[in-house]
Amino acid sequence: MKRVSCLIYLGLVLVVPITTYAELTGEIILRLPGDGNNELHITTIENPLDSHKIFSQKEKFVDLSVQRNGNLLVTRLSEPGIPKDIILFDRSTNEVRNLTQGQFGIYINFRISVKGDVVFSNPHSEPERRGLFFISSDEIQKVKPKIVRLDQRQVFSVNFSPDGEQVVYNDDDDWMYIRNLRTKQVTRLDQGGYMPCFSPNGKQIAFIAKRVIGQVEYILSIVSLVNPLKETHIALGERMIVGDLKWSPNGEYITYSTWDVFVTNKSFTYAAPVDGGLHEKVFDQFNGKFVYFDWTYSHLPVHPADLMTTTWGELKVRRVRN
Question: Which of 242, 278, 285, 316 is deepest in the core (most CB within 10 A)?
Fold first, then answer.
C-alpha cells in the first residue's frame, strides 16, 4: 500500500506544472537612500550598488519619474519637512529646469510620459491650488511653462498610460478616474483604490485596495480594461503600503514599497509576480531605507489608444462631466 501511495505521489509531481518567472532585471534610475538622498544614480535593479551618478543638487530629492526610452526625468526638491518645486532634468544635455517655480505648496505625486508631458497632483487646502495639473512637452522647454488644471478634486496618485494619451488617478475618497488627454473624456471606475497604474501594454490597471475585517488589510488588485470581468487580487496582509506601485517593463511583476512606522521605522520594496507566487524583496542592500526608483525603458507594444477608449466603454463605469 505504501508503494502504491508513493507511485501516485510521484505521478502527481511529474504531471503538475511548475510556474516559473523571469528574473526581475533591468536598468533603473534611483535616489540613493541615507546620505545620498541628494543624488540620482543609474544602475540595474538586480545590482543597485553598481551605479554611477548622473545628477545631484544641494536639496534632497523626493520621488522621481523617468521618461521611458528617453532622456528626461522629473523629481521634486525638498528642504527639511517642506516639499517644494518640481525639477526637470535632461540627461542628454545636463540641463535643469524648474517647472513650478514656487506656484504651489505641496506635491503628492507627479509623472512624465513617454511623450515628455508632465502631470502632477496637489491636494492643497486652497481651491485655486488644488487638483490635477498638466504641463505639455512643448511648455516644459519654456522659461515659465504654462500649467493647465485638468481636475479640481483633491487628487493624490497619478500615472500616464504607456502611450501618454491617458492618465489614471485617484481622489481623496479613493475613487479612480481615467482621463483621455486628447478627447478630455473622464471615466470613473467602479473599483475603489489608490496608486493606480497602467500595465506596460495598457490593457490592465493595478492599484492598492484596503479592507477592514477587525484590522486593516491591503490588497494588490489588477483590473482588465479588455475583459471587465477579469480581476486579480493579491493579498498583502497588514503591510503598510506607502507608495511606488510600478509594473516591471516585461509586465510580469508589480513592485510596491512598505514602511513600518510604528515598530522598526524601516521600509522595504517587494516585487509581486502578476500571476501569483512569492513576493521577492528588492534593494535588500539598503537595510530598510526607503528607495525611490523608476525604470528607464519599456519594451512591450502599446495597446492602441482608440481601442483602449472603446474597451473602457465596456467596463462598469460612470461618465463624469468636465
Answer: 242
